[in-house]
């Protein structure tokens, strides 16, 4: 990979984190009043602000949380291209499901998101004298962070801030963990402000709509954590929660790729001020972008995921009006045969390293790529820059290593042509997901959500509507709508497909549910004897 870019951007992201998290959730002195253990925060509001900054840093990168949710799925993989992206197998083992507890991203996510939980608990401690707004924010962040740990690791260490800092955190699992998280969400709903859709900056913090969305997400996945089948009462509540979000004015909106700009829209329920540049350059070729310094030429997608979308399997072109052509749906995007000037792009400027415009399309990029003036681009060896469906080594054999510069279809959701280098706005909760959660809850309750699925497909300008939908239809529609938004792993697990076979999957991990959760890092097991290593590790 391009190590110079990776290091610079990673450092910039880590600078946003704003909190160092001990492996045993040990309370560290920040703005706390310390005498005998934790005694309260002097300024809980500043800690809340720091927490949102931490979340932005944790969410912005192409590594850590994003990698665990996407690279472990059929949606993303990073083949080794010559000397690039080898990294001692760091990326490959995620896609093959051949990881262990020493993996850096698995360790980092456990530390960082548990660190969020601890700081939120400090805010919520009565000795910090939190305001109602502080309580709403901190309860929401703690619930979200604990849910991330539960969903990824199956058990959540929790430190009671009223106990001595030397005490060992208790560990919550199953129903107890779900109940704790749901109680925090109820507190957030009671204390967070009500926001209307298209509220702009108001959607950068906790709101009643964001808390209701999170509760719906927890309930939809609850049977994964506690065992058994989806509960009818839980599904009914998911439907009710989404209806309450809709009542606040949130709704599906046309213009798919416009949703990922900072402009106010009716779909953004919660976003973070997280820079989008990593999501732009991570898959682009060195010669494929007008961003100064070029792309990283790493992340790609499997052909089988690309084939979920309407359109020609080998041809993905935009027409003269920069609209999808050749029968492909809007969400699949396309490759422009000529670049787009930045005259009408408010988020792009020469200050960001752009020259005159962008030669990069939206969505999925396949086959020949073009320069701003329409000239076909070439790779660094002078061969046509054509992104390919296959992953082949120098001998022509399908292989995860020794790929050339052009293997793999690339993705641009946060897009270079929008001037993403200057944008710090990433969506975390979006109404289309809530819409699909409601449809899924109806389906799991024995109802027929076909009209809801087709409503979404219609607004996304698909050419075909579905007949009576199946579980596979719902999963596929979630893939088409929510790709690169860090939901694919969670969705595949809920639909029982995280263990299915896909290209390069390690044979011993196929149909093995042990990999539905990650291992507890060994250092955590040593620090907290209440933690137990997950089965299979």
Automatic annotation (TrEMBL):
Top-level taxon in the UniProt lineage: Bacteria
The entry's keywords: Cell outer membrane, Membrane, Signal
InterPro entries tied to this protein: SusD_RagB_dom, TPR-like_helical_dom_sf
RagB/SusD domain residues: 267-537
Classification via SUPFAM superfamilies: TPR-like
Localisation per UniProt entry: Cell outer membrane
Recorded family membership: Belongs to the SusD family.
The protein, known as: Starch-binding associating with outer membrane
């Amino acid at each position: 990979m391009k190590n110079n870019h990776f290091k610079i951007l990673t450092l910039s992201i880590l600078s946003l984190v704003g909190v160092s998290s001990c492996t045993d959730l040990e309370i560290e002195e920040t703005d706390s009043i310390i005498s005998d253990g934790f005694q309260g925060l002097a300024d809980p509001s500043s800690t809340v602000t720091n927490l949102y900054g931490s979340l932005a840093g944790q969410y912005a990168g192409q590594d850590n949380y994003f990698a665990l949710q996407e690279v472990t799925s059929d949606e993303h993989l990073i083949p080794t291209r010559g000397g690039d992206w080898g990294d001692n197998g760091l990326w490959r083992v995620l896609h093959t499901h051949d990881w262990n507890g020493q993996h850096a991203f698995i360790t980092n996510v456990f530390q960082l998101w548990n660190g969020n939980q601890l700081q939120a608990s400090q805010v919520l401690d009565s000795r910090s004298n939190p305001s109602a707004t502080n309580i709403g924010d901190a309860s929401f962040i703690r619930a979200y962070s604990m849910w991330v740990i539960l969903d990824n690791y199956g058990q959540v260490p929790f430190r009671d801030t009223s106990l001595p800092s030397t005490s060992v955190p208790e560990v919550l699992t199953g129903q107890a963990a779900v109940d704790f998280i749901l109680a925090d969400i109820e507190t957030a709903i009671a204390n967070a402000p009500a926001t209307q859709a298209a509220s702009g900056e108001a959607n950068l913090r906790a709101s009643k709509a964001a808390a209701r969305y999170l509760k719906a997400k927890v309930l939809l996945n609850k049977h994964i954590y506690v065992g058994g089948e989806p509960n009818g009462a839980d599904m009914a509540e998911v439907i009710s929660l989404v209806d309450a979000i809709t009542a606040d004015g949130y709704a599906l909106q046309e213009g798919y790729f416009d949703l990922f700009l900072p402009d106010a829209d009716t779909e953004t329920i919660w976003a973070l001020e997280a820079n989008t540049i990593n999501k732009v350059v991570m898959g682009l070729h060195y010669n494929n972008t007008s961003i100064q310094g070029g792309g990283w030429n790493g992340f790609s997608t499997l052909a089988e995921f690309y084939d979920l979308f309407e359109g020609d399997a080998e041809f993905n072109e935009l027409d003269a009006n920069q609209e999808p052509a050749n029968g492909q749906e809007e969400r699949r995007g396309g490759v422009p045969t000529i670049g787009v000037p930045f005259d009408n792009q408010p988020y792009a400027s020469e200050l960001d390293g752009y020259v005159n415009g962008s030669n990069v399309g939206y969505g999925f990029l396949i086959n020949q790529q073009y320069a701003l003036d329409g000239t076909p681009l070439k790779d660094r060896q002078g061969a046509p820059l054509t992104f390919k469906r296959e992953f082949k080594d120098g001998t022509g054999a399908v292989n995860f290593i020794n790929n050339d510069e052009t293997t793999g279809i690339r993705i641009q959701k946060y897009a270079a042509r929008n001037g993403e280098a200057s944008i710090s706005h990433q969506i975390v909760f979006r109404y289309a997901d809530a819409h699909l959660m409601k449809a899924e809850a109806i389906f799991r309750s024995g109802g027929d959500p076909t009209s809801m699925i087709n409503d979404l497909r219609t607004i996304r300008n698909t050419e075909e509507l579905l007949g009576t939908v199946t579980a596979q239809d719902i999963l596929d529609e979630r893939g088409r709508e929510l790709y690169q938004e860090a939901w694919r792993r969670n969705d595949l697990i809920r639909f029982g497909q995280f263990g299915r076979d896909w290209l390069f999957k390690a044979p011993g991990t196929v149909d093995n549910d042990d990999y539905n959760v990650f291992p507890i890092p060994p250092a955590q097991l040593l620090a907290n004897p209440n933690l137990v290593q997950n089965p299979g590790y």
